[in-house]
Amino acid sequence: MDDFESLRIFVCVAEELSVTGAARRLGKSPSNVTTKLQKLEANLGAELLVRTGKRISLSHAGEAFLDYAAKLLSLRAESMHVVSGGRTPGTIRIGSMEATAASRLPDFLASFNTAFPAVRLELGTGPSMKLMDDVRSGRLDCAFLAIPPSFLDSALSDRLEVLDLVFQDAWEESLVLLSPRGIADQQDSTVRTLAAFPPGCTYRRIAEETLNIPESDDWTIQETSSYHVMVALASTGRCVTVLPESVLGTMKIPETLISTPLRRVKTQVTWRKGYGTPAFDQFLGHLSGTDFG
Q1: Cα(215)–Cα(61) distance, rounded to whole angstroms?
Q2: Helix or strand or coil: residue 274?
Q3: How far is CA 286 from CA 108, 120, 197, 253, in A?
Q4: What letters, b where the CB count within 10 A reaches 16 and e where it falls short, cover 65-78?
Q5: How many angstroms separate the CA atoms of 89 and 274, rounded?
Q6: Rg of the chain over CA atoms, in angstroms?
Q7: Which CATH architecture has domain 91-171+268-288?
Q8: Residue 145: CB partners within 8 Å, gap ≥ 6?
Q9: CATH assignment of 2-83, given 1.10.10.10, 3.40.50.360, 3.30.70.1050, 3.40.50.300?
Q10: Domain 173-265 CATH class label
């Protein structure tokens, strides 16, 4: 039990990058946190944290160990939840695309929490390809993501069969092209900049394929991590962007912009084959019974 407590303290310090902050969050004294960390480092025979004055950062060993520590804590909680038949509160670590977290999940997660208040939900966001890797590695229990249609229509679809993942359709998103008014069509040469998320985003890939960007020499991509920034960039009259209609409905769009339907794309929830806990079964059941419109 003490070993798991040391892991929990290390993960908290790694997240806070502060012994004082971690101690406050854990309800412990800073001296107790420091002692536990020193004992853990001694047992491992490796320095996990680099201390420079009052500043703390992860060493190379600490960065590598953090992922394992988080997995061990998660497996411990999962095992206790399963063997107790769900009597021990469970945790579900969920990954999601930014669009899904912004427009689809709030109402669903609120209703799930009302129905199953004992289940703890953790939510993080990222591009679809990274989310898929995080589910495969066990960093996430499930994720809401979209697979590029071009993957499904090519030989790459065979690779999905060997990922040991289950994919279940959740809903469809309608993607739209947001562009300055006066642009005649998608090939208008006056605007040749796409505002998009970094690589790994399915919607970016769809935008690139639709606009034929990989085969063009005159397109540039301005990367950002926010749909609000994408809309602001399009408002300058120098960019186009692609986003789900559900996200568009949550934002105030300037009259200088026009949205054009692009295509419909499935959002799926994925998890590891064989994975199942009472809490996750409740999650899937609630998901199946929810009408996302």
Answers
A1: 42
A2: coil
A3: 9, 15, 30, 33
A4: bbeebbeebbeebb
A5: 20
A6: 22
A7: 3-Layer(aba) Sandwich (3.40)
A8: 95, 96, 97, 128, 131, 132, 202, 267, 268, 270
A9: 1.10.10.10
A10: alpha beta
Burial state string for 181-216 with b = 16 or more CB within 10 A and e = fewer than 16: eebeeeeeeebbbbbbbeeebbbbbbbbeebebeee
Long-range contacts of 29-38 (CB under 8 A, 24+ apart): 33/9, 36/5, 36/6, 36/9, 36/10, 37/6, 37/9, 37/10, 37/13
- pTM of the complete model: 0.72
The angle subtended at Cα 265 by Cα 263 and Cα 271, nearest 5°, is 170
Question: What does DSSP say about strands 240-244 and 193-196: parallel, antiparallel, or unpaired?
Answer: parallel
pLDDT in tens, the chain (293 residues): 458 888 888 888 888 888 888 888 888 888 888 888 888 888 888 888 888 877 888 888 888 888 888 777 777 776 765 665 655 567 888 999 999 999 999 999 999 999 989 888 989 999 998 999 889 888 889 999 998 877 765 555 556 666 788 999 999 999 999 999 876 455 555 788 999 999 989 999 999 998 888 888 889 999 998 999 999 999 998 899 999 999 998 898 988 999 999 999 999 999 988 888 888 888 999 999 998 87
Q: 245: closest CA among 104, 106, 94?
A: 104
* Amino acid making up residue 22: A
Nearest to 174 by CA among 248, 225, 250: 248
